[in-house]
Specification:
By secondary structure, the protein is of the alpha+beta class. It has 2 domains: about 110 residues, Aminotransferase class 4, branched-chain amino acid transferase, N-terminal domain (D-amino Acid Aminotransferase, Chain A, domain 1); about 160 residues, Alpha-Beta Barrel (D-amino Acid Aminotransferase, Chain A, domain 2). It has 9 helices and 14 strands. The radius of gyration is 19 Å and the shape is globular. The chain starts with a strand and ends with a helix. It holds the Pfam family Aminotran_4. One of its GO terms (molecular function) is lyase activity.
């Protein structure tokens, strides 16, 4: 099932052609996006996602349509989706047609969440570490590289996931050139040690995670400490639990790192899921 809404709130056939072949999003990957989890008709962290969309638009100099237009499109999708169950709601904005009048292309698309993602939430995943080819100071030195913007230029991320599959793993944790840990191709890294949750800093050029922020809020209410600080591979092996989190995958535990089994964190995973869900 899919539901497609344009920014004026009208619905249209998701199987019909809508994007011109000379759209810069298609031609050059020149666009931005957000993916929002909706549960039982309610979008999670919608405000935070729209804030991040605006931040990405500012970083890429894309003239983002106003917030009301996105909210209108989101509501149109929600109103035409079954009231119960889950949906991945994708907001996409490209720079528009090459040589056009500068009007961006924007839409909201609701999609079902696949069984593979559901199984990984339940059973956990294996990951490999792969170098991302950046150093910790690069985001500040070279803002034109758009590190930390959520662009639709995901070819490297998808190539990394294919490399993980070639190595017999499910996913990836990227590392910087100095060995610092970054993020997954489509997720944020969270490490649990004792009653402290940690995640790498956005200053490394990674995307601030909306799901990670919600998890941290819930854990803090339960008396946990949370930290944003640099992490390295040995921190993962020494941790009580390692997790990749995102809107669609929610809280997913990592049970194997570079072929090595990690500490069994199934019970801890259930506890953290409870903290996250308590936010909604």
């Amino acid at each position: 099932m899919r539901v497609l809404a344009m920014l004026d709130g009208t619905l249209t056939d998701p199987d019909a052609p809508h994007i011109r072949v000379d759209d810069l999003g298609l031609m050059r990957g020149d666009g931005i996006f957000e993916t929002i989890l909706a549960v039982d008709g309610r979008p999670r962290e919608l405000g935070a996602h729209l804030d991040r969309l605006a931040r990405s638009a500012a970083m890429t100099d894309i003239p983002l349509p106003d917030r009301a237009a996105w909210e209108r499109a989101v509501q149109a999708v929600l109103d035409n989706w079954p009231a119960d169950g889950e949906m991945a709601l994708k907001l996409v904005c490209t720079r528009g047609v090459d040589g056009g009048d500068g009007t961006p292309t924007g839409f909201a698309l609701g999609m079902e969440i696949g069984e593979r993602v559901r199984a990984q939430r339940r059973d956990g995943i294996s990951v490999v570490t792969l170098e991302r080819g950046i150093d910790p100071g690069l985001a500040d030195r070279a803002p034109w590289l758009l590190l930390g913007a959520k662009t639709i230029s995901y070819a490297i991320n998808m190539a990394a996931q294919r490399e993980a599959e070639r190595r017999g793993a499910d996913d990836v944790v990227f590392t910087a050139s100095d060995g610092s840990l970054l993020e997954g191709p489509t997720s944020t890294l969270v490490v649990a040690s004792g009653r402290t949750l940690r995640t790498p800093p956005a200053q490394l050029g990674i995307l601030p995670g909306t799901t990670q922020a919600a998890l941290f809020r819930g854990a803090e209410r339960a008396g946990w400490a949370t930290k944003v600080e640099p992490l390295r591979v040995p921190d993962l092996r020494a941790a009580d639990g390692v997790f990749l989190v995102s809107s669609v995958r929610r809280i997913t535990r990592v049970h194997t790192l570079d072929g090595e089994r990690l500490t069994d964190s199934a019970d801890l995973h259930a506890e953290l899921v409870g903290y996250y869900e308590s936010e909604y």
